[in-house]
Amino acid sequence: MDARPCFLMTDASAFDVSYRINPWMDPGAWTAEHRAAALAASGELRAALRGLGARVETIEAVRGLPDLVFPANAAVVLDGRVLLARFRHPERQGEETVFRAVFARLKARGLVSELVDLPEGVLQEGAGDAIWDAERRLFWAGFGPRSNRASLGVIRKTFGQEVVGLELASERFYHLDTCFCPLAGGAMLYHPEAFTPKALATIRARIAEANRIEATAEEAAAFCVNAVNLGETVVMARPPVTLRAKLEARGYRLVEVDLAPFIRSGGAAYCMTLRLDRTSDARPAILAAE
Questions:
Q1: Residue 285 CB neighbours (<10 A)
Q2: In the chain, which ranges are E strands?
Q3: Is 13 exposed, middle or buried (0-12, 13-18, 19+ CB in 10 A)?
Q4: Nearest 5 degrees, angle CA 285-CA 207-CA 188?
Q5: Where are the domains positioned within the chain?
Q6: pLDDT 10s digits, 88-107
Q7: 3-state secondary structure of 88
Q8: Nearest-5° angle of CA 201, CA 197, CA 244?
Q9: What gap in Å lies between CA 92 and CA 12, rounded to an integer?
Q10: CA distance 176 to 193
C-alpha cells in the first residue's frame, strides 16, 4: 500500500477570473498574462508537493468552470469516505457533476471507498469549510458566507467525528481555509478578524494561547493561511517576512510558491488541493527537511 500523502489537483489551463463571487475577484483586471502565470504557478505547486514525497492526481480542466482549480471545495474526505459538496453560487454549481464523476473514477481505482450526498437544502463547500485537525481528532467547520449551519450535523453524522462549528464574519474570508490552518504539533494559524465574536471565543477556549499563531490582516490578505501542512513543512503562497519569522521560530520549514494569479480569485495552496488519504486514526507524518 502506498503510504505517501495523496492530493487531488486540477489542470489550470481553463482557469481565469470571469465572474465575481467574492471581493478578491475582478474580471476586468484579468489578462492573458495572468493565465500564463497561473499555469506556471499550478505546476510549481504540484512540483513542490511531489518534492515533499506526495502523490498528486491531476484532473482535466473544463472550459466555463474556472474555479474547478480549487478542488478543496469539491468534497470532505476522511477514511475513504467522500461527502460531495453542494455550492451556494450558480457559477460553481456546474462543478458538482464534474467532481462526482471524478470521485467515481477514484473509487473504481480504490483511492476512495464511498460517495455520500448531502441532504436537500444543505450547502457545504467541501474541505474548504470542513478542516480535519489530525492533532485534536475533530473537524473545524466554517459556516455563514458559503456553507450553512445545517452542514455541521451532516458532517458529524457522515464521519462519526466531533465537529466544532465556527461562524465566519467576513465575505473576504468566505471559506474557513482562507483564515484557519491547523499545523502539526498542535499549533493553529488563524486570522482573528475573520470570525464572529462567538467563533473567536470558541477558538480561544479550545486552543491554548501558546498554540495560537495569529495572522495579521496583511498576512491573511497574502493568502498564507490557506496553506498545505505536511509535518514540519508548510507549503504556502509567498508570505510577508513577519509570518515567515513566526513560523520558523516554531520550527516549521516554509516552501513558498508564487500563487498570485489564484489569489486574484480568492484562493491559494490549500484551495488548489484536496487531500485524499486522511484517516481518523493515524498521527500526521513528519517529513524530514531536505
A1: 13
A2: 6-10, 55-59, 75-78, 81-84, 114-116, 130-133, 138-143, 162-167, 180-182, 188-190, 212-214, 228-230, 233-237, 253-257, 274-275
A3: middle
A4: 50
A5: 6-275
A6: 999 999 999 999 999 999 99
A7: coil
A8: 70
A9: 16
A10: 12
Domain 6-275: which topology?
Answer: L-arginine/glycine Amidinotransferase; Chain A (3.75.10)
Q: Catalytic one among 6, 34, 175, 191?
A: 175
3-state secondary structure at position 120: coil
> 6, 179, 181, 271: which is the annotated catalytic residue?
271
The residue whose grid cell reads 458529524 is: 156
Cell of 22: 467574492
Q: In what order do the strands lie in the sheet with 188-190?
A: 180-182, 188-190, 212-214
**Residue 6 appears among annotated catalytic residues:** no
Establish whether 181 is a catalytic residue. Answer: no
pLDDT tens sequence for the chain (290 residues):
678 999 999 999 999 999 999 999 999 999 999 999 999 999 999 999 999 999 999 999 999 999 999 999 999 999 999 999 999 999 999 999 999 999 999 999 999 999 999 999 999 999 999 999 999 999 999 999 999 999 999 999 999 999 999 999 999 999 999 999 999 999 999 999 999 999 999 999 999 999 999 999 999 999 999 999 999 999 999 999 999 999 999 999 999 999 999 999 999 999 999 999 999 985 443 333 32
Residue entry with cell 471507498: 113
- How far is the C-alpha of 52 from the C-alpha of 269, rounded, in Å? 14
